Structure formats: structure tokens, C-alpha cells
Amino acid sequence: MKNTKYMTNLKKYTKNFSPFTSHLSLPPRGYTLIEMLVVIGVLGSIGTIITGIIFVSLRGAQKSDTLEVIRQNGDAALSQMVKNIRYAKSLDIPSSCIPSTTVSSVTFTALDSGQTTLSCSANTISSNSASLLDTNAVATSTCSFTCFQPTLNDPPTITIQFTLTTKVPSNFIERSGSTSFQSSVSMRNFIRR
Q1: Which residue numbers in the chain have pLDDT < 70?
Q2: 2 domain residue, yes or no
Q3: How far is it, in rounded angstroms, from Cα 18 to Cα 81?
Q4: 156 within 8 A of 170, measured Cβ to Cβ
Q5: Burial class of 70 by CB neighbour count within 10 A (0 to 12, 13 to 18, 19+)
Q6: Domain range enclosing 165
Q7: For the chain, how many structural domains are there in total?
Q8: Residue 157 lies in a domain
Q9: CA 36, CA 25: separation in Å to the nearest integer?
Q10: Are residues 119 and 156 in contact, defined by beta-carbon separation less than 8 angstroms?
Q11: Looking at residue 42, what is its pLDDT?
């Protein structure tokens, strides 16, 4: 009888610790307040880090787009001016590049005898008063033409220098930018006077 009572008690205790029935016999357990606060803190930290990464990426993309607009305008204007000067047959203004002269406009005659004036004025670069830039997007902050000629019989070399900035200045650094451009070109078809 003592043995039977022992076996009954043993079964009663082992029933609660059985691997197959222990999860069924215990009442369901919820999360504590501390566990919930830790999970919320971890998720908040991860969200803050991801938001920061996205914000930095978007700012970098805006800066890149701004500089790309400036670069495209500057390259287009510079290539147009270089092409016009390279194939000109004479330089009319300034009349002499001895000694080296820095001016805000140059006038030259093309092979077809048409005259072209490149000038820096009113925050733009123009060719015969037609702007070579998108004046809604960019403006010139500096612009000059430097003419150099070793002798009167040598073709003049004209150095074009200008700096473009965004048209509307912004307090956000990613929406403002400035890029300098420079090129030197000699007249290939220069006719000596």
C-alpha cells in the first residue's frame, strides 16, 4: 500500500514535468512590460538608423542632380564657344592680343564671313545676344576671355574661363552648387592681316 501511494504521488508530480504534456498543463504566459519596452526600443533604433540612411541617400542624389545640370550647361556652352572660335578666320575685337588681354567679350569673323560676338553679360554667356545657357537653372558668377598672341602673324589663342552656379540660391547645400570651366583654343583658319 505504501508502494501504491508512492507511485500515485510520483505519477502526479511527473505528469506536470512530462515533455509531452508540460506545455498543455501550464497556463499561457504573456509578455512582460519590460520585454515589450525592450522590443519597442530596438525597433525604434533600427527605424532611426534606416531613416537616416535614406535621408543621406536622397540628399546625395539631389546634390548629384544639381551638379549634373550645372555640368551639362557648362559643357554645352564651352563646346559651342570652342567650335566657333576654332573655325573662325579672324579676330575682330580685341583687335590685338599683344600683350595678353582679358576681356568680357570677343568678336570674330567665321569662314562664311558672318560675325559672331561671344559675351559675358547679365549672369549668362551669349552668342550674338542668344544665351548659351539655361538661364532658368544656372547663372555665371565669373566669366572672361583671355586673348594671347606671340606675334601678329601667329594665330591668337583664346582662353575661356567661367564659373556656373545654381540660379536660385538655397539654404540647403544639396540644392546649390558651383563649377568652374576653362578651355584654351587657337584659331585654325586664322588669316594673317
Answers
A1: 1-28, 169-170, 173, 191-193
A2: no
A3: 90
A4: no
A5: buried
A6: 56-186
A7: 1
A8: yes
A9: 26
A10: no
A11: 94
